[in-house]
Amino acid sequence: MAEEEEKTEEREEEKEEFDPSKKPKPKAAEDDYTPISPLGYIGYNLIFSIPIVGLVFEILWATSSEKVNLKNYARAQLIALAIGVCIWLIVFFGFLGGTLSNIRY
Q1: Residue 13 belongs to what domain range?
Q2: How far apart are CA 58 and CA 46, in angstroms?
Q3: 27, 32, 35, 86: which is closest to 44 by C-alpha?
Q4: Phi/psi of residue 32, each to 5°?
Q5: DSSP 3-state assignment of 33?
Q6: Which of 11, 70, 87, 93 pairs with 64 at a CA distance of 20 to 30 A?
Q7: CA of 7: how far to CAs of 3, 15, 22, 35, 47, in Å?
Q8: Could you count the other beta carbons within 10 Å of the beta carbon of residue 58?
Q9: What is the pTM of this model?
């Protein structure tokens, strides 16, 4: 009989521990939505303009930053960089192709 009382006490403790009003927060609620200040944008642009180091920081912040605004800004910078590289390649090879076609052997 003592065993049954212990089991019922354990069940009551489990019921007390479970509280449906204490739901776990979704991941989006844990993220930081603080805005980036104007000086922050200037600082991030300076960091992103450093060759190689800036690219590494862009990739890191675009993939793993806790701050949502910084993550989105880094992603936008990466997209702008990719578009710029594509345009540069098109222009470079367009001029290169034009100049090579004018060479007479």
Answers
A1: 2-101
A2: 12
A3: 35
A4: -95, 120
A5: coil
A6: 87
A7: 6, 12, 25, 52, 61
A8: 20
A9: 0.65
Radius of gyration of the chain (CA): 28
Does residue 78 contact residue 59 with C-beta atoms inside 8 Å? yes
Q: Are 62 and 80 in contact (CB under 8 A)?
A: no
Q: What is the pLDDT of residue 93?
A: 87
Tokens read off for 49: 């303009």
- Gap between the terminal Cα atoms of the chain: 106
> Tokens 């540069």 belong to which residue?
88
Q: How far apart are CA 40 and CA 9, in angstroms?
A: 56
pLDDT digits (tens, 9 = 90+) for 30-57: 668 999 999 999 999 999 999 999 999 9
User: Which of the residues in the chain have pLDDT under 70?
Assistant: 1-31, 105
**How many Cβ atoms sit within 10 Å of the Cβ of residue 70?**
17
Q: Which of 78, 34, 33 is nearest to 55 (CA)?
A: 78
